[in-house]
Design brief:
40 strands, single chain, 17 helices, 27% helix
Length: 666
C-alpha cells in the first residue's frame, strides 16, 4: 500500500480523500493556490505545496506544477478528485512517465470515455442505445445552427471535455443555438482547455439516472446500483438520491450490466459512472461516462456501505475488489443536497464573500438515521470567485425514502450559513414539494415547478401555526428576561402579559399564553392550542423546540418587535406584539423599495465579458444586453422589456460588485 498520496484538487473533495487516506494510514499532500492558502484541505493534509495564483489555469490545472509538487514531497500516487485534471489523459500519462500511480483509470480509458464524442461512438459500436446527435466537430455558430435544425429543436450543446454543467446549453431556436455555441465554446476553453463542441437531441421529460461502477486490475467489475440525479438547475445537479424511486429491479439490473460491459470494453479500472437518460417507459439511453469519482458518490456509499475513495486507492495499488456483484445489496435510502454559494432570490446567481457563520448540523450515525456533511470550508473562511460555487454536500440516510426526506428536512433547518447567499432555502422547498415526495420528477422539475425563479416558501396553515406558537413562547422567554434587569427603581416591576398578537406571512394571529415550569401552552382564538417546550435562550441563533411533541428547528435572529425566523425554506419576519401595539402597527405606512426599473444592475460579483448594445440603441424584450462571468460561468443579462439605452456605465473587463449599475434606460 502507498505511504503518501498527493491530492491534485481542492475544497470538499480534497478533504474527502484526506479522510479515507487517513483512515488507511496513508499520509497526504495538499496543493493550494494563493486564494486557498488558509483553506480547510491545506489544514487537514500532512503536507501542503503552493502551486500558483488563484485562477485554476495558472495553478490547479497546470500539470507541470502538480508534478513539481509530487517530486518535492515524494508522493507515490496522486488522486485527482473530480473536475480539474481528473479526466485529463495528459496528466495520467505524465504520472505514468514519472513512475507515480494515478488513482483512477488507465489513460486509454480516459481518452476513450472521457471525451464525449469518442465515448458515444464506442457506445454505438458496442450496441448501446444512444441519444440522436451530431458526433463530429463543429466549426462555427453558423454550422451549429445548421446541425441543430437537422437534429430538430430542442438540442443540447455540450463541451466535449465538459462536466459539472460547464460548457452546456439548451437551445430551442436558431438564435439560442448560435449564442449557446459561442458561450459553451468560451466556457469549455477557460475551464478545460478544450473548446470542442458537439450537439445532440435534447430529450424532453427525461430522468437522469447514473450507474456507479467499480473495476479492479484483475478483470473484476461490479455496479453499485444507481443514483437519481434529475433535480438539476442549468444542467447542474442540486439533489441526488440512491436508489432511484423510478427504477424496477429488472431495469436496474439491465442498466448495471450494460454499464459494466461498457467499462470492460475499454479496459476500465477504478471508480467510474455511466450516465443514462431514462424516459417515462423506462427506456434508457447512454449519455456519457465520467472516468472519475462523482460529486454525488456519498449516497452510493450510504446505501452500500462501500468507501469508494478507499476502493479507488486499493485498486490503484493493485488489490482485488473484496466483494462480488451478489454481495452488493441496497440498504435503505440516501439523499444528498448540494450547498451552493448561489443566491436563490437572485435567480441563483453566484455569491462570494466571507462565511460569518458556518455551522452544519451535527453528523450522526444510527440505525434509524445518518447525517453526513462533506465540506471544504469553515466559519471565517472565504468563498472565492475563482472556483466552483459548491461548498458542502449534506447527506442523510434512513431505512426508507420518507425517513431520508424527513431527516434531510431537519438537517437543512439546522444548517446555519451567514455572510453569503446560498441555496439552503431552495433545497428545503424541494424536500416539501409534492412531486418530489411522490418521486414524480424529471430533469425539467425545477424549470416546471419554479418557472419564475425562487421567491421563498409560503408555509401551509399547519406549519404556520406551529411557528406562531413557537415565536409566542420564545417571545415570552425574552420578555421575562428583560424584566430581570438589575438596578431598577423600587415599585417599578414590569409584568409580562398573557395576551399577544403574532403577525407573520401577512396574517395576524391572536394568542393567549399559559406558561409553567416545563413550557407554555399557546391558545388560539378558535380554541385550538399548541404545547411548546424548549431550552432556547435569547441570543441563540438556533432554536430546537417541540411543538405538540414534534421536533421543530428554527433559525432565529432578533429584529425590533419580534424575530426573523427561517424554516422549511421560508424566511419570515415574525412580530409578537401586545394587542395595543398590534393596533398601532396597523396604522403604520408600508415602506416601499426604491424603483430600479430603469437600470440594469449587476446581479452578482463578476467580470464584464461583453457589452452587447450601444448608447441610444433601442432594445427589445429578451435581447442580450451584457455578459458577466462569475465562478467559471458566463451569465447573459437580457432586457426585461422594450426600451432605449440612455447610458452605459461599465465596459468589458470591468470587475463589478452586486447591484453596480451596468447601464441606464430612458
Amino acid at each position: 500500500m502507498f505511504k503518501k498520496i498527493l491530492i491534485a484538487n481542492r475544497g470538499e473533495i480534497a478533504c474527502r480523500v484526506i479522510k479515507s487516506a487517513r483512515k488507511m494510514g496513508i499520509k497526504t499532500v495538499a496543493v493550494y493556490s494563493d486564494a486557498d492558502r488558509h483553506a480547510l484541505h491545506v489544514k487537514m493534509a500532512d503536507e501542503a505545496v503552493h502551486i500558483g495564483p488563484p485562477p485554476a489555469n495558472q495553478s490547479y490545472i497546470v500539470i507541470d506544477k502538480i508534478m513539481d509538487a509530487i517530486r518535492q514531497t515524494g508522493a507515490e500516487a496522486a488522486h485527482p478528485g473530480y473536475g480539474f485534471l481528473s479526466e485529463n489523459m495528459k496528466f495520467a500519462e505524465a504520472l505514468e512517465k514519472e513512475g507515480v500511480v494515478f488513482v483512477g483509470p488507465p489513460s486509454p480509458a480516459i481518452e476513450a470515455m472521457g471525451d464525449k464524442i469518442t465515448s458515444k461512438k464506442i457506445a454505438m459500436e458496442a450496441g448501446v442505445s444512444t441519444v440522436p446527435g451530431y458526433m463530429g466537430l463543429i466549426a462555427d455558430a453558423e454550422e451549429a445552427v445548421k446541425i441543430s435544425r437537422e437534429i430538430g429543436y430542442p438540442v443540447m450543446i455540450k463541451a466535449s471535455a465538459g462536466g459539472g454543467g460547464k460548457g452546456m446549453r439548451i437551445a430551442w431556436n436558431d438564435v439560442e443555438a448560435a449564442e449557446g455555441f459561442q458561450s459553451s465554446k468560451n466556457e469549455a476553453a477557460s475551464s478545460f482547455g478544450d473548446d470542442r463542441i458537439f450537439i445532440e437531441k435534447f430529450v424532453t421529460q427525461p430522468r437522469h439516472i447514473e450507474i456507479q461502477v467499480l473495476a479492479d486490475k484483475h478483470g473484476n467489475c461490479v455496479y453499485l446500483h444507481e443514483r437519481e440525479c434529475s433535480i438539476q438547475r442549468r444542467n447542474q445537479k442540486v439533489i441526488e438520491e440512491a436508489p432511484s424511486p423510478f427504477l424496477d429491479p429488472e431495469t436496474r439490473k439491465a442498466m448495471g450490466e450494460q454499464a459494466c460491459a461498457l467499462a470492460k470494453a475499454v479496459g476500465y479500472t477504478s471508480a467510474g459512472t455511466v450516465e443514462f437518460i431514462v424516459d417515462g417507459e423506462k427506456n434508457f439511453y447512454f449519455l456519457e461516462m465520467n472516468t472519475r469519482l462523482q460529486v454525488e458518490h456519498p449516497v452510493t456509499e450510504l446505501i452500500t456501505g462501500v468507501d469508494l475513495v478507499e476502493q479507488m486507492i486499493r485498486v490503484a495499488a493493485g488489490e482485488k475488489l473484496p466483494f462480488a456483484q451478489k454481495d452488493l445489496k441496497i440498504n435503505g435510502w440516501a439523499i444528498e443536497s448540494r450547498l451552493y454559494a448561489e443566491d436563490p432570490y437572485r435567480n441563483f446567481l453566484p455569491s462570494i464573500g466571507r462565511l460569518t457563520r458556518y455551522r452544519p448540523p451535527v453528523e450522526a450515525v444510527g440505525d434509524k438515521a445518518i447525517v453526513r456533511n462533506d465540506t471544504g470550508v469553515y466559519e471565517g473562511g472565504e468563498i472565492s470567485m475563482y472556483y466552483d460555487p459548491m461548498i458542502a454536500k449534506l447527506c442523510t440516510w434512513a431505512p426508507d425514502r420518507a425517513g431520508a426526506i424527513e431527516a434531510m428536512r431537519v438537517a437543512l433547518d439546522a444548517f446555519e450559513v451567514e455572510g453569503i447567499g446560498h441555496n439552503l432555502p431552495f433545497c428545503s422547498a424541494v424536500m416539501d414539494h409534492p412531486r418530489f415526495i411522490e418521486g414524480a420528477i424529471t430533469t425539467a422539475f425545477i424549470a416546471e415547478e419554479f418557472p419564475e425563479g425562487f421567491n421563498g416558501v409560503v408555509l401551509g396553515e399547519g406549519r404556520l401555526r406551529m411557528v406562531a406558537a413557537a415565536a409566542a413562547a420564545m417571545n415570552r422567554v425574552a420578555e421575562i428576561r428583560r424584566t430581570r434587569i438589575t438596578g431598577r427603581l423600587g415599585n417599578h416591576e414590569r409584568h409580562v402579559g398573557d395576551d399577544w398578537v403574532v403577525a407573520l406571512q401577512g396574517e395576524e394571529i391572536a394568542v393567549k399564553i399559559d406558561a409553567d415550569r416545563d413550557g407554555a401552552t399557546v391558545r388560539f382564538a378558535d380554541g385550538t392550542a399548541h404545547r411548546v417546550t424548549s431550552d432556547w435562550t435569547p441570543g441563540q441563533s438556533l432554536a430546537r423546540l417541540e411543538v405538540d411533541g414534534a421536533a421543530v428547528v428554527l433559525k432565529v435572529d432578533k429584529i425590533p418587535g419580534g424575530f426573523r425566523i427561517r424554516t422549511r425554506g421560508a424566511d419570515l419576519k415574525v412580530y409578537v406584539r401586545t394587542p395595543r401595539q398590534a393596533e398601532l402597527a396597523r396604522l403604520m405606512p408600508e415602506k416601499l423599495p426604491p424603483d430600479t426599473s430603469k437600470y440594469l444592475l449587476c446581479p452578482m460579483p463578476g467580470l464584464v465579458v461583453k457589452i452587447s448594445v450601444e448608447e441610444g440603441q433601442e432594445v427589445q424584450e429578451g435581447q442580450a444586453l451584457a455578459t458577466v462571468e462569475a465562478m467559471k460561468m458566463e451569465n447573459i443579462l437580457r432586457a426585461e422589456k422594450k426600451g432605449v439605452v440612455k447610458k452605459i456605465s461599465a465596459q468589458a473587463g470591468a470587475s463589478l460588485k452586486v447591484d453596480d449599475v451596468i447601464m441606464e434606460f430612458e
